[in-house]
TrEMBL record:
Residues bearing PTM 2',4',5'-topaquinone: 446
Cofactor binding annotation: Contains 1 topaquinone per subunit.
Gene Ontology MF term list: copper ion binding; diamine oxidase activity; primary methylamine oxidase activity; quinone binding
Class of this enzyme: oxidoreductase
GO CC terms: plasma membrane
Limits of the Copper amine oxidase catalytic domain: 286-523, 575-663
Keywords for this protein: Copper, Metal-binding, Oxidoreductase, Signal, TPQ
Required cofactor(s): Cu cation
Copper amine oxidase N2-terminal domain location: 33-117
UniProt PTM comment: Topaquinone (TPQ) is generated by copper-dependent autoxidation of a specific tyrosyl residue.
Gene of this entry: Aoc1
Name of the molecule in the record: Amine oxidase
Domain Copper amine oxidase N3-terminal positions: 134-234
């Protein structure tokens, strides 16, 4: 199998896995299991846990519950030999805020479904996470809003005059904020720049020109304070300073026009007309399954053609595949999303500080409802997810995942064999199809569409599309160096997206090696023409460690997206397109939910994975893949960034693994042969599927709920 980077630009979910299916050892925790773990931990007097919602920040509370996957060795033994299942456990993230040294501690709780014990999960250096590095909670956001409204009360006249919106008794004309991260300049800080915006549809595109630095490190919100402000290109040391300047009439105001009641530029309401006048008010092409589904879904086990895999949706980081097999043989133990990072530049303090690490915002739990016929075809199977994040019980996210077969619109392979006399010897083609497993992460303004695609020829594709609202700031002339003016008072800030994946390949077993292939040119004497020379390409193998004749090789891809070493701050996500390390049970992920608020000394440091001088010859290896792209926003990103041109991913492809293309097992090809060449008036058409696909209309109307 080869790893190549592509740098172009049912009623129950996995939680209801069939207990007898081996794939269920990787299934997400069911609502019953989540409730059982919470009840067990809440009843432990030594933990002193209080409800997550309400109350003070200085309390002990349960923040996150999700599956703790079994150790690989135990899982492989069970998958190969059956017998006793690996111990099923939950990962619990506990905020200990009600003690002299507040911290965040992780616990392993089990066995499930009836937990009776817990143990500490080891983090960096065996220590806990400092409390100031914890992810944000709904309670802290509510307190942050209260503190901001109170602190900015002296600015209400300014805000009403300049924007027509305010914080005090605002009803339908309210101001809101978006927060950015990291929350400070070094360890121990929890100071956040807040972008003030008008609360209209698409409020991310409506900054008012005010940004506020609020210090909220203390667990007592009464000690929180505004440390600095930025308004319309100028910095101010206090709210009072800014308010007094406005009161004296000495402050240049950034006056914003009244937003229209309809067809606001940040909305999805149609406006304008296409030049050609071709119809858009009727339905376009649709995906259909005229003879029913060609895939099988049992709990969290997905099967399609030669493919079989288990999947789950982690609350922390998103989609995770396990035990990926083709033709019954395992080719990957794990394939998973690790992190999504966006580095921004700008003239405003919030823009220049923004370096989002979306695992820190629990991007896996941001898997809101998928719309039938828009996010996924009408024919898709939709699956619910249950997350336990910053809540007092499991929360159901309806239709958070979908599975569907997709016509690719291009043949998987085809050939027209011409006789070069106006006829042909034969035509043969195999329609292009892929099975798609999809979810989304809406991390505030941005929407990531996460796909794993399974092709009949043994190729697997991992892909992510970026869409949603751009992260934008208030326009100033100085800001033009950091992006584009996309509307009258709006700057679209340039940024780089980096997405990180873990690829634990087990090709013909766990003992693999890493090898790269280069193509270079040679200039040699022509052996069949004296005096002439031949320039031709040839393969050059590097780092050639023996890994078995059928194991194939990894091929690192080249392309744009990942920044060069030294150009990014000390963050957990790697600086490399591809890094290969030995697999260790204590290195399950390349990032963590704590890295966003503590990028200076994160609990997980990827550099430590690759700086230990371990041999990677004939070992259990993991490939860590980074893909990404530079996004310079432009006017066409309004109202939302479009998916074409904003997708990246990579392929897993078999390389001398099979004797031939395994898609020859498909019964979907078409072969046409003339019976009377060269006139070709009578044809033999061979098909192994019904002659006609039949009706292709989905009877159900569009529906959407959106609750979770």
């Amino acid at each position: 199998w080869a790893l190549a980077l592509l740098l172009t630009a049912a009623p129950s979910g996995p939680s209801a896995a069939v207990a007898s299916d081996p794939a269920s050892i990787f299934a997400d925790l069911s609502p019953a299991e989540l409730r059982a773990v919470r009840t067990f931990l809440m009843e432990r007097p030594e933990l002193g846990l209080a409800p997550s919602r309400g109350g003070p920040l200085a309390k002990n509370s349960l923040f996150l519950l999700e599956l703790l996957p079994p150790p690989k060795r135990a899982a492989l033994r069970f998958l190969a030999q059956g017998g006793r299942r690996p111990r099923r456990e939950a990962r619990a993230v506990v905020f200990f805020g009600a003690q002299p040294e507040p911290n965040v501690t992780e616990l392993a709780v089990g066995p499930l479904p009836r937990p009776r014990s817990y143990r500490l999960l080891g983090l960096k250096g065996g220590r806990s996470v400092p409390f100031w590095a914890r992810p944000m909670t709904q309670l802290e956001y509510e307190l942050l809003h209260e503190a901001l409204v109170a602190a900015l009360a002296p600015l209400e006249p300014l805000l009403l005059e300049a924007t027509g919106f305010g914080f005090q008794n605002c009803s339908r004309r309210c101001l809101v904020f978006s927060d950015i991260a990291p929350r400070g300049q070094g360890p121990g800080e929890r100071r956040t720049w807040l972008i003030i915006q008008r609360f209209v549809e698409g409020y991310f595109l409506h900054p008012v020109g005010l940004e506020v630095l609020l210090d909220h490190r203390d667990t007592d919100p009464r000690r929180w304070a505004v440390r600095q402000l930025w308004y319309n290109g100028r910095y101010f040391g206090s709210v009072r300073e800014l308010a007094e300047l406005h009161g004296r009439g000495q402050l240049p105001l950034a006056r914003l026009p009244e937003p229209p009641a309809r067809q606001l530029f940040s909305s999805y309401e149609p406006r304008g007309q296409f030049f050609t006048g071709t119809p858009t008010e009727v339905h376009g092409a649709k995906v259909c399954e005229p003879q029913g589904r060609r895939y099988r879904l049992r709990g969290n086990r997905l099967e399609y053609g030669g493919w079989s895999l288990a999947f789950r949706l982690r609350s922390s980081a998103g989609l995770q595949l396990f035990d990926v097999r083709f033709g019954g043989e395992r080719v990957a133990y794990e394939l998973s999303v690790q992190e999504a990072i966006a580095f921004y530049g700008g003239h405003t303090p919030a823009a220049m500080q923004t370096k989002y690490m979306d695992a820190g915002w629990a991007m896996g739990a941001s898997s809101y409802e998928l719309a039938r016929g828009v996010d996924c075809p009408e024919t898709a199977t939709f699956l619910d997810a249950h997350h336990f994040l910053d809540a007092d019980g499991p929360v159901r996210f309806a239709r958070a995942l979908c599975v569907f077969e997709l016509p690719t619109g291009v043949p998987l392979r085809r050939h027209f064999d011409s006789d070069f006399q106006g006829g042909f010897h034969f035509y043969a083609g195999l329609e292009g199809r892929a099975l798609v497993l999809r979810t989304t992460s809406t991390v505030y303004n941005y929407d990531y569409i996460w796909d794993f695609l399974l092709y009949p020829n043994g190729v697997l594709e991992a892909k992510v599309h970026a869409t949603g609202y751009i992260h934008a700031t208030f326009y100033t002339p100085e800001g033009r160096r950091y992006g584009s003016r996309v509307h009258s008072h709006l700057l679209g800030n340039l940024h780089t997206h980096l997405v990180h994946y873990k690829v634990d390949l087990d090709v013909a077993g766990t003992g693999n090696s890493f090898e790269t292939m280069d193509i270079r040119f040679e200039n040699i004497s022509n052996p069949w023409s004296a005096g002439s020379r031949v320039v031709q390409p040839l393969m050059s193998l590097r780092c050639d460690w023996a890994g078995g004749g059928t194991a194939g090789e990894y091929r690192p891809g080249a392309g744009e997206g990942a920044p060069a070493p030294g150009l990014i701050p000390p963050l957990p996500c790697p600086r490399y397109h591809l890094a290969v390390t030995r697999r260790h049970e204590n290195e399950p992920s390349s990032s963590s939910i704590y890295s966003q608020n503590n990028p200076w000394d994160p609990p997980v440091t990827f550099e430590s994975f690759i700086r230990n001088n371990e041999t990677i010859e004939d070992q259990d290896l993991v490939a860590w893949v980074t893909v990404g792209f530079l996004h310079v926003p432009h006017a066409e990103d309004v109202p939302n960034t479009a998916t074409p041109g904003n997708a990246v991913g990579f392929f897993l492809r078999p390389f001398n693994f099979f004797d031939e293309d395994p898609s020859v097992a498909s019964r979907a090809p078409v072969i046409v042969r003339p019976l009377d060449p060269p006139t070709c008036s009578r044809l033999e058409i061979q098909r192994w599927t019904p002659p006609s696909a039949g009706a292709c209309v989905h009877p159900e109307p569009f529906s959407y709920n959106g609750t979770y």
